[in-house]
Amino acid sequence: MSKVSTRQIVFERTAVLVITVLFLLPVLWLITTAYKPSNQIFSIPPKLGFQPTLDQFRGMLSYFDVVSLLRSSIVISLGTTVLSLLLGVPAGYSLARSRSRYANFFAYFFLAIRMVPAIAALIPFYLMMRDIGLLGSWWAVIIINTMLNCAFVTWMMFSYFRALPRDMEEAALTDGCTQIGAFLKVAVPAVRSGIIACVLFCVMFSWNDFLYPMFLTTLDSKPISVALLTAYGTKDVTWGSLGALAHFSTIPIVLMALFLNRYFVQGATNGVQ
Questions:
Q1: Highest mean pLDDT among 5-14, 17-26, 128-137
Q2: pTM value?
Q3: Taking Cα atoms as reference points, which of 266, 109, 115, 125 lies closest to residue 199?
Q4: What end-to-end distance do the CA atoms of the chain give, in Å?
Q5: 148 contacts 113 by C-beta, under 8 angstroms
Q6: Distance between CA 218 and CA 135 in Å, rounded?
Q7: Apex CA 268: angle with CA 263 and CA 273, to 5°?
Q8: CA–CA–CA angle 50, 53, 59 (5° rounding)
Q9: Phi, psi of 136 (to 5 degrees)
Q10: Spatial contact of 172 and 62, defined as CB atoms under 8 Å apart
Q11: How confident is the model at residue 109 (pLDDT cuts 50, 70, 90)?
Q12: Which of 58, 87, 136, 266 is the most exposed place for a label (fewest CB within 10 A)?
C-alpha cells in the first residue's frame, strides 16, 4: 500500500471520528446530566468524574406518567405505520405497474406531499378534526401522519416494485394466480427489505413528531415527544428531568434503527430510478 493511500485512509478515519464525536457530544452531555446531582450539572469547571445518582429519574417518574406517554407514542407510531403501509404499498405497486407515461410524475408528486411544511397543514387539519369530533384523540395525529407518511411509502415502494421483474408475477398468473394473489404472494415478499425500510421511516417520523401532537392531542393522549417540552419552565429548565425523560424517548427508536440499520441505508439510497 502506498504512502498516499495510507495517509488518505488515516485522514478519512480521523475525519469520521471527529465528526462522530462532535455529533455525539450533545447526546453524551444529556445522558450524563440525568445521572448528575442538580448542583453539578453546570459546575465550572465541568466535573468529568462524579458520583452517579438516580434522583433525576425519581423526580421525573414522580412528575410524569411515563407509561401513559410511551403508550401514546407507541399507539400513534404503530397506527400511522400500519395505515401508511396498507395504503402506500398497493399504491406504489399500482404506479410501478402502470403503463402511463405520467407514472414518474405522480411518484414525485407523492414525494412532494411529504415535503409540505408541517405548519401549512396544521391549521386546516385542526379545524377539520374539531368539526368531526376527533380533536384531542390519538386518531387526529394518526390520520395526519398517515397522510404524509403514506405519500412517502408510495414513492419508496414505487421504486422497489419497478425494479422487480414482471416475469415473476406473469409466471404466477400463468399458474392460475389472480392479480391480487400475484401481488401478495410474489411481489410483496420480493420487496420485503423495502417494506422494512418504510416501517423504520414511518416509525421514526411518527415517534419524533412534535408539532402535530402538540396541538392535536390533550393531556391524556400526548406522546413522550411533547412531554419533553414540560422540562422548560417559565424560570428555568429542569435539565436533569429532561435528560432522564430523554432516555425513554430516544432508546427505543435508537435500538430499532440499529437493529434495522442495513434496511434503513438501503431504503435511503434506493431512490426512484
A1: 128-137
A2: 0.83
A3: 266
A4: 37
A5: yes
A6: 8
A7: 110
A8: 135
A9: 95, 0
A10: no
A11: confident
A12: 58
**Domains: count for the chain:** 2
Q: 265, 252, 154: which is closest to 204 by C-alpha?
A: 252
The type of residue at 36 is: K
State mean pLDDT over 178-204. 87
Other beta carbons within 10 angstroms of residue 99's beta carbon come to 5
**Residue 1 maps to a domain:** no
Question: Going by C-beta distance under 8 Å and a sequence separation of 6 or more, which residues neighbour residue 59?
Answer: 240, 241, 244
Alpha helices (H) in the chain, listed in sequence order: 3-33, 55-63, 66-97, 103-114, 118-132, 138-162, 166-174, 179-182, 188-190, 192-207, 211-216, 224-227, 239-259, 261-269
CA distance 53 to 245: 15
Residue 70 maps to a domain: yes
If pLDDT is split at 50, 70 and 90, which confidence band does 272 have?
Answer: very low
Same domain, 64 and 48: no
Does the pLDDT of residue 88 top 70, yes or no?
A: yes
Give residue for cell 502506498: 2
- How many Å apart are CA 198 and CA 192, to the nearest integer? 10
For residues 167 and 250, state if they share a domain.
Answer: yes
A 10 A CB-CB count for 212 gives 25
Please provide the average confidence, as pLDDT, over all residues in the chain.
83
CA R_g for the chain: 23
Q: Are 238 and 158 in contact (CB under 8 A)?
A: no
Range of the domain at 257: 60-270
- Shared domain check, 219 and 103: yes
Residues 91 and 205 in one domain: yes
> 88 and 24 in one domain?
no
